[in-house]
Amino acid sequence: MNAAPRMLLSAEPIGGLWCITLELAAGLCAAGIDVTLALLGTSPRPAQMEAAQAIPGLALVPMHLDPGRDKFELGDALATVARRRHVDVVHLHNPALAASRWHVPVVAAMHGCPAVSWHALHGGDLPADLGWHAAATARGLMAANAVIAPSHAFAEQLQRVYGVRAQVVHHGLRPRAVPLHARARAVLASSCLGDDAADLATLDQATALLGAPVHVAGHLTRPDGSAPALSHLRRLGMLDAVAMRAAFAGHLIFASAARHEPFGLTVLEAALSGMALVLADIPAFRELWDGVALFAAPGDAAGFARACRFLLDDPRAAALAGAAAMRRAAQFNRESMVAATLAVHRSITRENVRA
Hints:
355 residues, alpha/beta, Rossmann fold, 6-stranded parallel β-sheet, 17% strand, globular
């Protein structure tokens, strides 16, 4: 009887990446894969650790290593774990680590990239503080046996910026129970670290035109300590998973004016909750939600206000849009994500055996 395939995953307990990592780990374990999850960076919060420990068969290895340290040093530490665990394949959520010395095939999963985002938003040369990150990422992507991207739109951007071909594995989440109570005549948005790519300024201007509340959840302070000037959006602050699900269930519309997104995990969560979607007309959103969302041009505050007002003023149209979004969201599930991931892993392990 053959032993179960062994796999090493690595991730930091941060935001949407942590959520996707646990979904992937749970699905892989359920598929009979022997999975080790190496925890990088800060220690998971108690609730995060409990969620990871609740996955049957998942082995957790806290590394207590800062992902900002020398990438080769960190990669070598992970490679040591891979050898000790006798893994068959390594799946890294920090692609720069793929440039280290590995004894087995390596998959580099790209969920986002500051350099790609910079090129999408600004174009031209990268600022100095992003140059080193792009160089480290490029080395890792070139060293990896396979690269994964969460959308075709982002895969095309990776090829333009780094010259690498990525295979597409859409993110996937489990369906969730949606409370059957009335939704407020209000719009919900979210932001991560006050990222300018989220373009909250456009939603702030749209709120002034809309005449209905628009709430924004998340951390609005940028890494440099500054914050966007918002006069009309109502701030909910950071919400834990339970509070965020309540917010999804309590609002009629989810809006994102993002000028760049590799996938948009929060949009998927909102759609799974039955919310109507009003989204910026950017490649990833159009790829994933065409036919079920209303779109406005990036930066078009009046367009966002019109789309939101149409749904707020027509509850039946909003309900139909929310149901359509939920049906589309069901296609982006854990099972399809795991199956696509395993297909990538099998392809590179077969190539490694032939070599």
